Automatic annotation (TrEMBL):
It comes from the Eukaryota. Belongs to the ornithine cyclodeaminase/mu-crystallin family. SUPFAM superfamilies: NAD(P)-binding Rossmann-fold domains. It comes from Cutaneotrichosporon cavernicola. The lineage of its organism: Eukaryota, Fungi, Dikarya, Basidiomycota, Agaricomycotina. Gene3D superfamilies: NAD(P)-binding Rossmann-like Domain (3.40.50.720), ornithine cyclodeaminase, domain 1 (3.30.1780.10). InterPro entries: NAD(P)-bd_dom_sf, ODC_Mu_crystall, ODC_N. This is NAD(P)-binding protein. One of its GO terms (cellular component) is cytoplasm.
Length: 353
């Protein structure tokens, strides 16, 4: 593309990219970005210019929406993601990412970002498991709490990465067309995997159809939570030794998806950002900085051994807590754009500027 062209990727274009995307590209992009974030380091040759820049998130509010504006920069790529959070009802979270050519300052792409957040979070979760498991684990049972885009992204990411997984349980508070469609979608893409829906609410002790929440949790090798719950989703006691949890849902101090007892069992928690999780993650309130290890410290070669030993050497379960970083969006958007260009997807506006 010339620097006068603009590529627009619709949700359908992004779907086509994701259907054929090698999951390793997504995970590798997050590995590099987390390592860069935690080493934070390095300035470029130009005084005052850092390789990685992550300004504060801004908000614009209306009667119906809260719009989150998240700019970020990694050497070679600048982007800004805008996500709308509705005050009532939900058709998902509308989002778009604007990508800039930092040499010319011109916009080079606009892409629908509804599924990109899920893609980057799922890649980060897979990376957290890879980094601590050391390539030796062969998980068989994946349990997912939630039925939205994040749930779909996590199911696909883990199933593509770990063919040993032969069962997926989707746990919802109630069976809905969305949760039923998620189960069908996972089953259609991975026909050799048993996919079931369980309806249960640990908060009020209800379940349907004979579903046993405690037994399901006890059998799980990996548990991923993607809800806006303010109460724990499942009991801590049945979780087996060696289980790995990816907590993605909570992003405010009053929100939580697991019991305090489970956090105590982990002892040290793996996080995407020590600073962000310390302020925002409800499950981690009251923990000291010394009890939090960043994923970037685990994957960076200079700090990996000590960081992995610290996380694995304390508790009998592992927890990865993520509230999301803007630089993750830069990395995953660059991967999706490169694949879209390779596949010839999107609408190219020839003389945008």
């Amino acid at each position: 593309m010339s620097d006068r062209e603009l590529r627009i990727l619709t949700s359908a274009d992004v779907d086509k990219v994701l259907d054929s995307l090698d999951q390793r590209l997504a995970v590798d992009s997050q590995r590099a970005i987390f390592a860069a974030y935690s080493t934070q380091g390095d300035a470029e040759d130009i005084p005052g210019v850092r390789k990685l820049q992550l300004p504060l998130r801004h908000q614009l509010m209306s009667a119906d929406q809260t719009m989150l504006i998240m700019p970020a920069r990694v050497t070679g790529t600048m982007s800004c993601k805008i996500v709308s959070v509705p005050r009532a009802g939900s058709d998902g979270l509308p989002g778009s990412t604007i990508m800039m050519d930092e040499k010319t300052g011109k916009v080079k792409a606009i892409m629908n970002a509804r599924k990109l957040t899920a893609l980057r979070n799922a890649a980060g979760s897979v990376l957290s498991y890879q980094a601590l498991a050391g390539g030796e684990q062969k998980p068989e049972h994946l349990v997912i709490f939630g039925s939205g885009t994040q749930a779909d992204g996590h199911a696909r990411a883990f199933l593509q990465t770990y063919p040993s997984i032969n069962k997926v349980t989707v746990v919802a508070r109630r069976s809905t067309p969305r949760s039923q469609e998620l189960v069908k979608d996972i089953a259609s893409h991975f026909p050799s995997v048993k996919v079931v829906e369980g309806v249960a609410s640990y908060a009020d002790g209800t379940s349907e159809g004979g579903f046993d929440l405690a037994k399901t949790v006890a059998d799980a090798d990996i548990i991923c939570t993607m809800t806006s719950s303010t109460k724990a989703l499942f009991p801590a006691a049945p979780v087996k030794k060696g289980a790995h949890m990816c907590l993605i849902g909570s992003y405010k101090p009053h929100m939580r998806e697991v019991e305090d007892e489970l956090v105590k069992r982990a002892g040290v928690v793996l996080v995407d950002s020590r600073e962000a999780c310390g302020h925002e993650a409800g499950e981690l309130q009251g923990m000291s900085e010394d009890q939090l290890v960043e994923l970037g410290e685990v994957v960076d070669v200079s700090t990996r051994d000590a960081a992995v030993k610290k996380v694995n050497g304390v508790g009998d379960v592992n927890i990865f807590k993520s509230v999301g970083l803007g630089v993750q969006d830069v990395a995953i958007s660059a991967v999706v754009l490169a694949e879209a260009e390779r596949l010839g997807l999107g609408t190219v506006v020839p003389d945008y500027d």
